[in-house]
Amino acid sequence: MINITLPDGSVKTFNEGVTPMDVARDISEGLARNVISAKFNDQIVETVTPLNQDGSLTLYTWRDDLGKKAFWHSSSHVVAQAIEELYPGVKLTIGPAIENGFYYDIDFGEHSISEKDFPMIEKRAIEIARGKHPYKMREVSKEDALNYYKKQDNEYKVELISNLEDGTITFCDHDSFTDLCRGGHIPNTGYIKALKLLSVAGAYWRGDEKNPQLTRVYGISFPKQKELTEYLELLEEAKKRDHRKLGRELELFTFSQKVGQGLPLWLPKGAALRERLEQFLKKAQKKAGYEMVISPHIGQKELYVTSGHYAKYGEDSFQPIHTPKEDEEFLLKPMNCPHHCEIYNAKPFSYRELPKRYAEFGTVYRYEQSGELHGLTRVRGFTQDDAHIFCTQEQLDQEFKNVIDLSLYVLGSLGFDNFTAQVSVRDLDKPEKYIGSVDNWEKAEQAIINAAEEKGLDFKVEAGEAAFYGPKLDFMVKDALGRNWQLGTIQVDYNLPERFELTYKGSDNELHRPVMIHRAPFGSMERFIALLLEHTGGNFPLWLTPDQAIILPVSEKHEKYAEKVSKSLENNEIRALIDARNETVGKKIREAEMNKIPFMLIVGESEEEKGTISVRRHGGEDLGSISIDEFTDLVETEINSTLKTF
Ligand SMILES: [Zn+2]
Ligand SMILES: [Zn+2]
């Protein structure tokens, strides 16, 4: 008999050889119907794997990430089978599950495929799935495995197998198909009710451009047709909200091959928007006791050797800049922290003067391979809303709470109410990994957890996820399409104060090391604006949006009045523009809608007579003819409903 411990801590006794599916059935028939994958003693197993020792078992359904992973990986086998049948002689390589779906990298040889071939492959894959073929794992000797793929002339699988230890090699069979595979499958192909191929792309074997190029086929599958339909709708919506597309349409930013890839250029509307975001944060930071500092875009190599960033970024960084006469060596700034440490070092501090909170919208540069660049989310130059707090160990608690308050204020004002947090702490089994005293670590971790609890955050604690130099808290935001984005980090640091020999004079008149907190509520301006664009679909909060209103004169006759309206709005600090083109009001409204302008103010004969404006809200709601004062009140009320005072 063996003892199986379930996630709720309960222990059940079974005969040796019991399978995860048997355990599920023992719990309930309903669970057994839904179980698609399992983990036993930290290893993913098949639902039919016999369990021969005591251990803890987790059962996964479609609702679990690991359940989806098994589902999608299993689907990649089915797609590979369909492709192998339809394109004889292709060579399969690897087919993993990814965050949304799966891919298979295939050497198509003389065949080639494009999106128009997808329906045929999908049709065959679904036919195979309907056969309800069980996935069966079997061990093979290294020799047999190598021979199997040598016979098929598949040098890729041969290479993979060559790197494996004999005795650890397994094949997975279903229907007439066999693949080299470590395992982690759903019970049978029949669970796959809907399947769609999404795209094809080139991919180098093992990600190395010196290797042959393969074709990567992306797909996704679901246990219900309805779920596929919903997913495809979401994809469509995500395409419409792609920040690169919206950024172009709303004239916020651009890229120029001449300037260089990964280096965004901010257009006037985008620059103004960014400026407003900066002002918003600067105002709150001022109230929270931050002081602005400014540091250069480059620093001596030695600075980053001292900070340790050279070891981390040096290799993969841009080449150093040499001065022509003095032979000095400079690097583009990858992080603002070293500069801020030296700002702290500019004068001695006593404990009474701490905390010091230095903030800077600091632009940093990091080399990214051209293939990795993506719109504003992966760039080579970006501006962090950075700040570093230097405080005593005793002040850490309060400072952490203050930073959480500021972060929550930022998220709330920008319409993000769906977020969670992760607190990353040490791995207690590996104390040698971390610098700083155990006592300080304990206090810092407790300070973060206390602060998160007190502020009512929905958070989880992850052991072993802390950096070697200190614990941290990360905010994860869910956007309107349900996608997760990692946002601002609050990081405790015992390392840099040590490396830069930062000190303060304590009440005992001795010198002590301050603790440092790194924090950036937006993360970077670039990435944050990308997220904001995709979250709002370009319909920014009213306080932030580039143009809050557009005045549409019905004809040339009313242009003068339109200008008068524009002046009054300007006096009331409402950002409005006039569309005086010789076009119909209908056309102007349609364009204003496309440009996501929140209010359209139509002015004609009757408005001019009464001194009013006819207000139409973005999306179509008619607010009727009102006075400019009434409109100003409306705008103010709406802004105050999202933008609270800090
Ligand atoms: Zn597999
Ligand atoms: Zn920093």
Set down the secondary structure blueprint.
Blueprint: E1 2-5, E2 11-14, H1 20-27, H2 29-34, E3 37-40, E4 43-45, E5 55-60, H3 65-86, E6 91-92, E7 97-98, E8 101-107, H4 118-130, E9 136-139, H5 142-151, H6 155-162, E10 170-174, E11 177-180, E12 194-204, E13 213-222, H7 225-240, H8 243-249, E14 253-254, E15 265-266, H9 268-287, E16 291-292, E17 298-300, H10 301-307, H11 309-314, E18 321-322, E19 329-332, H12 337-344, E20 356-365, E21 381-391, H13 396-413, E22 419-425, H14 438-454, E23 459-463, E24 472-478, E25 484-493, H15 495-499, E26 504-505, E27 511-512, E28 515-519, H16 525-536, E29 549-553, H17 559-571, E30 576-578, H18 585-594, E31 599-603, H19 605-610, E32 612-617, E33 622-627, H20 628-642
Parallel strand pairs: 1-5, 16-20, 22-23, 29-30, 29-31
Antiparallel strand pairs: 1-2, 3-4, 3-5, 6-8, 7-8, 8-13, 9-10, 10-11, 12-13, 14-15, 17-19, 18-19, 20-21, 21-28, 22-24, 24-25, 25-28, 26-27, 31-32, 32-33
Helix pairs in contact: 3-4, 5-6, 8-16, 13-14
The structure holds zinc ion (ZN) (2 copies).
